[in-house]
Amino acid sequence: MSRCLVGNCIASVAVAALLLAPAALLAQDEPHLPGESPPIGALHRDADGRIEVIDPTKDQGGGHACTAGTICVGKGQAYATLAAAVALARIGDTIEILGGTYHESITVTAKNLTIRGIAGRPHLDCAGVALAGDKGCVLLKADGVTLDNIEISGAVIADGLGGNGACIRNNGPDQSFTVRNIICHGSQEGILSDGGAAVIENSEFYDNGWSGSTHNVYLSGNCTATVRGSVFRDARVGHEFKSRCRKTEISDSTFRSTKGSRNLDIPDGGETMVYRSRLSKTPGAQNMEYIGFAAESCTHPGDMVLKDVHIENSMRDALIHNFDKCEGHPIVLQQVTVEGLPIKELGYILRR
Fold it and tell me: How many domains are contained in the chain?
């Protein structure tokens, strides 16, 4: 653990302030200054009043059960709560959290941070917990965040705050993120994202989407979406998967509507590909449409292609619906098979 006396720290701060002076105040021939150093983490004082600089990757007691060089969270580890570890994290750090239940909500502000569960799958249970920013159990305020092997549930906020508490809320227009091996359930919204490149891999979303404006997954803004090997099922009212992105690519995934609305809602058009996936709908579903394409606008002109997709249907009036807001852009069905009752096709739809 590195330390410094109070007087020396004050002197260092003064020097740092000079080094970081605005460029406009520097002489024309001043050498180019290096970029700003990453934050050093929280500052604490010891019993003698001296400032201690804490390195979050160093073991602070209890025995380090995590990978060397990572920030360790769990019983008997350096940090008992994920929130404490996230507050100290630096750009590019990795936080490992041991299996167990954690009743807390977090805000991520460090870019390129990875948070992954180990020794089982840790559960962030936000039931009854005040959500970060009144938005989500996990609130992302930084680019390049990866969440891996975590269960998240219980994200709820009052209707007056939007009624859209999310397991994961991406709160920036240009922030990209990745979720991998995530289980998200029992929340008003699963993922709610305002932009950036979203990658969803080997994850499951269910029992989210509690209203007509909340869904298992809702991606909007200036975004792209890549989905692989994931399951979206049993939304209470909303869609299983909704994307307003300019490009959405889905492969090897399952979309099952038993109570809610569309399996796939692509309301603004956009280049959309669905490969090697399964869609199913049962009589309890509130919307007969498996797919709604360009129902609201043609913000992103493009075709929707379904290739090697299997549909299991028990709804008499089920349909695939191209609303044709994107004139001349079809839904293309290639090697699409239907098991059970036939499905109606409405709008510009091509079979190949």
Answer: 2
